[in-house]
Amino acid sequence: MKTSLLKISLVSTLLIVHSAFAAEEQDSATPLTVPTVPVIESPATTVKSPVDPWEKFNRSMFNFNEGADKYLLKPLTTVYVHITPQFLRRGVDNALSNVMEVPSALNGVLQGNLRSAAHDTGRLLVNSTLGLAGILDVAQYMNLKKTDQEDFGQTLAVWGVGSGPYLVLPLLGPSNLRDTTAVPVDWYTDPKAYIEDIPTRNTVRALSVLNTRANLMPLEKSITGDKYVFFREAYLQHRNFVIKNGQVEDSFGDDEGDADSGF
Length: 263
What we know:
This protein has helices at about 1-15, 55-85, 85-100, 100-110, 115-130, 150-160, 175-190, 200-215, 225-245, 250-260; strands spanning about 165-170, 175.
């Protein structure tokens, strides 16, 4: 039974898009939504993109991931949403986001962004105590609003490492060569990896996957045109947005394709 649970949780964990968008805190009376940067048309949507030289492989991996989501993750998430009250999902989302302030603060230090690191540390301390282990986001009422968290891929970008070609990883989803090399570090600095009890660790990881997928469900209505291109552009734009801390140019796709394409 433990082996089956381990396999299910590990597979489910890998199904989440590496740069899934964080859910914005709202009043409990409103539905969960996920703020995103609008997907802006770029030359990559109409012609072969210079950042996607491996498009044939990437499309095959994208189709594989779509099938895994359709037949495994989405049905499980639908059941999770049906049986779990909204306020409970919000509490789970807050708690899981709270523990990820740890690697976010660490990456802020590595990037030399001490203000960001202090902000994340403040949120962690306040929500871990006054917020009942992060279940309640008390910090938002103390001028410590929830922001996009830092990861090691962003740190490498700040250090001057180029993004490299766009890459769709089996089960992991949209990425690039730089962010792919950062994945082991992100996993190693994830506090959930240090839960000693294996069944508990697997349950927490599976819950994290389901909760994140549930937050992404409303976004499905926004998908238009070629789904593969939509996801590619959304990923490139969002990564550009978080790396530059919201200070972006008008054309997101062009920035990733031109200014950040090499190592």
